[in-house]
Design goal:
2 copies of one chain form a homodimer. Chain A is built from 12 helices and 8 strands. The first copy, chain A, is an alpha/beta fold and 290 residues long. Chain A is elongated.
Chain lengths: 290, 290
C-alpha cells in the first residue's frame, strides 16, 4: 500500500464545497487525516458523523504547521481573517487553496495577510452547483467532470501549482488556469451578469400592482430565464460586490446593447432586429455546456 | 350519435398550431370536416397524410360560406391578406379565431379588413410551445392543460365568445380573457422582454474577440438564461415589431432598473443589492408555472 498523496489536510468550512473536497480525496485514497474547522459546531459534528472529517480542530495554530494542504471553503468574506490567523503557523511545505467563486478579492486578501508566504497559496474556483448547501449536501462525486479554475500567482512555484492541481484532479475535476483578472472578467460576463439581469427582471415585476396577473401568464421562457433569480441574496450580494469593477463594466456594455435594440425597435428596423437575433441564435444553438 | 359541435372547420396554416387544433377537435369528436389552406403544398399534403385535414382547399371564397369555424394559424403578418380574401364570402354564422401570439396587430387587421363582419372574429392566443413547427409536429394533446387567452372585441356577442371558447376548451385548453391591450402588456412583460434580454446577452458576447473563452466557462445559469436566445429570429422579429409600443415601455422600465442596480453596485450599497435580490427571490421562489 502506497502512502496517500496528502497525509494531512485541514478544511475551513465543512459544507458543500469543503465537505465534498474531503470526501472526494478520501474516495481516491489520497488523504490520510482530515481536520475540520468552522463557525458552526453543529456542522462540524455532522461532518464527523458523515465521515467527512476525522477530527474537529481546536487550535488552528497547532494544526496547520504539519498540514500538506489547507482548503478555505468558507464564504469569501471570512477568508482574510482565517489567513491572518494561520499565516504565522504555516509549515514550509504547507499549500493552501480555496473554493471562492471570485478571485481578485481572495488574491487581495492573500497579499494583505500572508506576507512572505504568499507563494504557498494557489487560488481556485470550483464551478459546482450551489443549489444545496451544508455538510449534508456534500458528496464524493460533486467535482467529477466539473471545471475548476486555478488562478496562480506569479509567486507560486510550478511545483506548488502542480500539487494543488493534482488535488482537484484527484477529486475528478477538469482543471484549467486563468489569471485572477481573466477569471473575474470571464465570470462577470457569463455568470454574474446573467444573475444580476435575472434578479432585475423579477424585481422589476415585483414592484407592479398587477404582478399576480403578470405571473399567472408567465410560461416556460420566463421559468428558465428567472431560475437563477431564486439564488441566495446574501451570496450574490457578496459576489457582485467582490467583482464590482468587472461587473459594472459588463453592465454598462449590456445597457448599451439594450439601448441599441431599443433604438432599432423604435425605428421599426426589422432587418437590424432580425440580424441581432440571428447572431445570438447561431452562437447559442452552437454552444453546448462542457 | 350526436352531431359534432362544428360540422365544418377551415384552417389556414396546417402546421403545429393549426394542425394540433384540428387533431384535438377530431379526437374530441367535435368536428365533421376539416378543410386546409396554406402556402406550402408539401405541408398540406403531409397534413392530409397525417389525418389532420380531410381536404386541401382550392377556393377560399367557396369554402368559408358554410364553415362553422375558421382558424387563422399562419404567421400574424399573413393574416390581413387572408381576412381580406375571405371577408366578402363569410357565412352569417361563421366564426373566426386565430393563433397569433400578439393581439393588438391582429385586432387592427380585423377592423381594417372585416368591415361589417368584425363581430364574427374572436381573437385568441394559445400559449403552447413553439420549439417545433410544421404539420409533422402537430399533436392532438398539444393544448391539454395549456392556457389560451381570448381577447374579445366589443362587437363580439356573448354567444360568439362562448362558442370560440368552447372550441379551445374542447382542445383541452384552460381559457381566460383579457382585452387585446392587456394581453399585449402582459406578454411584453413576461415573455417578449425576457426573449429580447436573452438575445441581447448572447449578441453582446458574440461581438467579443474572446467569445470562445467566455463560452467555455459558461455553466448551468447561462444555459437556462439563454435557452430562449435560440428561438426563431424571424418569429421574434415579428413579435417584437407587432408589440412594439408595449415592449418599448417594458424595455425602458428595465433599463431604469439596471441603472439603479448599477448605481447601487458602484456605491457599494450592500443593503440595497441584498434587498433587491431578496425581493426577487421571494417572488420567484413562490411562483410555480400554472
Amino acid at each position: 500500500m502506497t502512502a496517500p498523496q496528502f497525509k494531512k489536510i485541514v478544511i475551513f468550512g465543512a459544507g458543500l464545497i469543503g465537505g465534498s473536497f474531503a470526501l472526494a480525496l478520501r474516495k481516491a485514497n489520497a488523504v490520510g487525516e482530515v481536520v475540520g474547522f468552522g463557525r458552526s459546531e453543529t456542522t462540524l459534528q455532522q461532518a464527523m458523523q458523515l465521515g467527512i472529517i476525522d477530527r474537529i480542530g481546536q487550535d488552528a495554530a497547532a494544526e496547520v504547521g504539519d498540514a500538506d494542504l489547507i482548503l478555505l471553503a468558507t464564504p469569501v468574506g471570512q477568508m482574510a481573517e482565517i489567513m491572518a490567523r494561520i499565516a504565522p503557523h504555516l509549515g514550509a511545505l504547507t499549500l493552501i487553496t480555496d473554493g471562492g467563486s471570485t478571485k481578485s478579492d481572495v488574491v487581495a486578501a492573500v497579499y494583505a495577510q500572508l506576507g512572505s508566504k504568499v507563494a504557498q497559496f494557489v487560488p481556485a474556483h470550483p464551478i459546482a452547483g450551489a443549489e444545496k448547501s451544508g455538510a449534508g449536501a456534500a458528496q464524493a462525486d460533486l467535482y467529477v467532470g466539473k471545471k475548476v479554475v486555478l488562478t496562480p500567482l506569479p509567486e507560486n512555484s510550478a511545483e506548488s501549482v502542480a500539487r494543488v492541481r493534482q488535488a482537484w484532479e484527484l477529486c475528478g475535476a477538469v482543471v484549467s488556469e486563468l489569471t485572477p483578472q481573466q477569471h473575474d472578467a470571464v465570470f462577470a460576463a457569463v455568470s454574474h451578469l446573467p444573475h444580476l439581469l435575472s434578479f432585475a427582471l423579477v424585481h422589476d415585476l415585483a414592484q407592479r400592482d398587477n404582478r399576480d396577473l403578470l405571473l399567472s401568464f408567465a410560461a416556460s421562457g420566463f421559468r428558465d430565464f428567472t431560475r437563477i433569480a431564486a439564488s441566495s441574496p446574501e451570496m450574490w450580494r457578496d459576489i457582485c460586490l467582490a467583482n464590482r469593477e468587472a461587473l459594472l463594466q459588463e453592465l454598462q456594455l449590456y445597457i448599451a446593447e439594450l439601448t441599441q435594440m431599443s433604438a432599432a425597435l423604435a425605428a421599426g428596423d426589422a432587418a437590424r432586429l432580425e440580424q441581432t437575433f440571428r447572431t445570438a441564435r447561431e452562437l447559442r444553438a452552437g454552444w453546448t455546456e462542457q
